[in-house]
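REQUEST ID: PR-0412
SUBMITTED BY: lab tech R.K.
PRIORITY: routine
TASK: structure prediction, single protein chain
INPUT:
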Amino acid sequence: MMELNYFKDRLFDLLNDNDELNIYDIDTDERRNIFTISTNDGNVFQLEFRQILARYL
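STATUS: complete
OUTPUT:
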């Protein structure tokens, strides 16, 4: 089962290693489960993470 923190860590790595998105900075707020992403052209995006379903197989 994939935990929320594991998912966030992997997504951070994907975003951080992607040169095509022209990401300047990724600020993480672990307590609130939010990434604030700044791009080289000055735009700022925010991602909020919530696990809405957990399946145990």
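NOTES: The chain is about 25% helix and 30% strand.
REVIEWED BY: pending
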